[in-house]
Amino acid sequence: MGSLLIPDSSDRAGVTWELLPHVSRTFALTIPVLNPPLCDHVAVAYLLCRIADTIEDAEDIPVHTRRELFDMFRELVHRPGEIGLQKRFLSAWCGRVDAFHGELIQKSGEVIETYARLPDHVQAAIAGCLDEMIPGMLVFLETCAPGEGPLRPCRTVGTLEQYCHVVAGTVGLLLTRLFATELPRSWATPQRFEEGRRFGLGLQITNVLKDADGDRRRGVSYLPDAPDTLIPLALFHLDQGHAYTLSIPSTRPDMRLFCVWACHLALATLARLAHSEPGKVPRGDLYVLLERSRAAIGSDAALTERYRSLRESVPG
Q1: pLDDT at 150 > cutoff 90
Q2: One-character DSSP codes across 13-56
Q3: CA quadruple 19, 21, 23, 24: dihedral positive or negative?
Q4: Nearest-angstrom CA–CA distance, 18 and 22
Q5: What is the pLDDT of residues 215-242, one digit of tens each?
Q6: Mean pLDDT, the chain, whole residue set
Q7: What long-range pairs does 155-163 form, CB within 8 A, spacing at least 24?
Q8: Are 161 and 307 in the same domain?
């Protein structure tokens, strides 16, 4: 099969690299390929967004308590030195989550401390993302009235896209801001930001499909009334992710690889779902996928051919 040259992160100490592999398989693979210090900036940004996701997804939190947790978390991001506020946040936490996400919440103060040491412009980009993400999450949570069957915050495709913008499009915009600090000034155009946002939508719609059964078991469904339209919709947005990847200069293969692996893994997931298979790509197939994608990273033509081949494996 050949060697999969994933950068060794064993020399990366600290809570960020300790927590990351346990809360996202995809980002634990992709973030370490970024050059430092960008990899550290993106890792901290991801964990902070994941904390917001955990507050949103946790079970058994009363509505008013969830709002308080969100408010305190946003305040911590803007005032990371408030130790008393961090203690109140942990005291108010009452959500039911798996052990790894429980650890993420319990160590949120250490993540905030790491965030507080980042450059000002990086903190500003992350805080801006969360300032849009968290109020948007609350809108969707508070418009769901409990009733028979799972909660359904996204009954239409348009509403689902709005939700995906809140939880993932905002992250695409954040990543574009962080990438822009290390690329020529001409790169960060309005088109580039929109491609990054749409990339996030494609990845999130893929996740909605992949996680549908698990979501249903915890009493929520993000599937709209026309779920058969979602695979073509995810592909439509991932096409923008491919364009986004090609826009990154080949002199930054680390950034390209970060994007390519996420995009190609999403295509492989969609192909499995389209064939009624579990969405999680088996480890052996995953390694082959990543190795082939890495081999194409320096050539726009090779990347386009690889993307086209994976896209054509998705029926419809």
Answers
A1: no
A2: -SHHHHHHHHH-HHHHHHGGGSPTTHHHHHHHHHHHHHHHHHHH
A3: positive
A4: 8
A5: 998 888 999 998 999 999 999 999 999 9
A6: 92
A7: 155/224, 155/225, 156/224, 156/225, 156/226, 157/224, 157/226, 157/229, 157/230, 157/233, 159/224, 160/205, 160/208, 160/222, 160/223, 160/224, 160/230, 161/201, 161/233, 163/136, 163/222
A8: yes
Rounded mean pLDDT, 135-140: 94
Query: Which tokens go with 118?
Result: 């980042």
* pTM over the 0.90 mark: yes
Location of structure tokens 């980042």: 118
Taking the chain, what is the end-to-end CA distance rounded to the nearest angstrom? 30
273 and 233, same structural domain? yes
Position of tokens 């430092």? Answer: 36
Distance from C-alpha of 90 to C-alpha of 138, rounded to nearest angstrom = 20
What SS3 class is residue 223? coil
Q: Is residue 1 part of a domain?
A: no
DSSP assignment, residue 149?
A: S
Percent of the chain scoring above 90 in pLDDT = 84
Q: Kindly indicate the confidence band of residue 141, based on its pLDDT and cuts at 50, 70 and 90.
A: confident
Q: Are residues 316 and 219 in the same domain?
A: yes
Q: Which domain holds residue 132?
A: 13-143
Q: Residue 175 falls within a domain, yes or no?
A: yes
CA proximity to 230, closest of 207, 199, 262:
207
Q: Which residue has the higher pLDDT, 316 or 104?
A: 104
Distance (Å, rounded) from C-alpha 91 to C-alpha 93?
6
Question: What are the residues whose beta carbons fall under 8 Å from the beta carbon of 176, sequence distance 6 or more?
Answer: 188, 192, 193, 196, 197
Q: What are phi and psi of 292, to 5 degrees?
A: -65, -35
Cα separation, 238 vs 228, whole angstroms: 17
Tell me: do 165 and 120 sit in the same domain.
no
Q: Name the strand (E) or helix (H) holding 172.
A: helix 170-180
At 190 the pLDDT is: 98
> What backbone torsions phi and psi does residue 309 show, to the nearest 5 degrees?
-60, -45
Whether residue 63 is found in the same domain as residue 206: no
